[in-house]
Design a protein that fits this description.
This protein has about 270 residues and is an alpha/beta fold. About 35% of the residues lie in helices and about 20% in strands. A hairpin with a 2-residue loop joins strand 2 and strand 3.
């Protein structure tokens, strides 16, 4: 009987009780959960492992922003709002204004898989609902919030460049480096590792590619931008390379393994 009463009480408990029950991991600022929605518990698995950045592919369908890697995977119940924005908002409220109690920055990358301007038009009013927790971008300043949204994929550049105020940053590419673009518009630079480097995770990085990587990192950081690569070897060898070089976000689909790797690095 006592067990039944406990189960009933949990079933009707407010969401903040559930969030408080989630174990608080030490935040890992460099950990980026690629294809985060593929995990058993989207977002929550990343948070349990201390990740400070998650990525969700989004499709616009019937005026809803649905999360999935391809159209045949989409379900009406898997919306960007329900899977990511709402639980992040509840967590921010529980933790007094931050995703983690440690008050570290948290990033939500939204990768548009459908028409950029149309998808962004539906996203904007949704983000307004959560303005209290989001980073605000202005033409010359950035007001940091608990969660920073970055738009990737089919990015509506022309639309976003015309806005003097936004609740989302623009994800740039390596070709944007050195173009004098403001980090208040383009806070991130992301690009395909495979398209720019030959190193495949085996052996040592060549001196030429090492110099190239260091130059990219230096240029991005000099301009106040953070750097991320996708299509990387998802192995300890590449994690070690990116960690030591100072790449801001390490892309992975192996949450527990990368978390363990980063914690061991930090302990040393």
């Amino acid at each position: 009987m006592k067990k039944l009463l406990f189960c009933l009480s949990v079933a009707v408990c407010p969401i903040d009780f559930v969030l408080q029950a989630e174990p608080e991991s030490v935040p890992l600022p460099q950990a980026h959960s690629h294809n985060d929605y593929y995990h058993k518990r989207p977002l929550l698995d990343a948070l349990t492992n201390g990740f400070c950045s998650v990525e969700a592919d989004v499709f616009l369908k019937n005026e809803k922003l649905l999360v999935g890697h391809s159209r045949f995977e989409l379900k009406d119940s898997r919306t960007l709002d329900l899977l990511y924005l709402k639980p992040l908002a509840e967590r921010v409220k529980v933790n007094g204004g931050s995703v983690y109690k440690g008050k570290v920055p948290f990033y939500l990358m939204i990768d548009f898989k459908t028409d950029g301007p149309k998808t962004y038009a539906v996203l904007q009013p949704l983000l307004e609902k959560y303005r209290f927790m989001l980073t605000e971008f202005n033409s010359g300043t950035t007001k940091d919030g608990a969660v920073t949204v970055v738009i990737s994929g089919s990015r509506p550049r022309a639309v976003m460049e015309k806005q003097s105020q936004r609740l989302a940053g623009y994800d740039g590419r390596l070709s944007d480096l050195g173009q004098g673009l403001s980090p208040h518009f383009m806070p991130w630079i992301s690009d395909s590792w495979r398209s720019n480097f030959k190193w495949n995770g085996r052996g040592d990085l060549s001196k030429i590619e090492e110099a190239k990587l260091n130059g990219i990192i230096e240029q991005a950081h000099k301009n106040g931008q953070k750097l991320r690569f996708w299509a990387t070897p998802d192995t300890p060898a590449s994690w070690d390379l990116f960690y030591n070089a100072g790449v801001d976000f390490i892309n992975t689909d192996k949450l527990e393994s990368l978390a363990k790797f980063l914690r061991e690095k930090r302990s040393k």
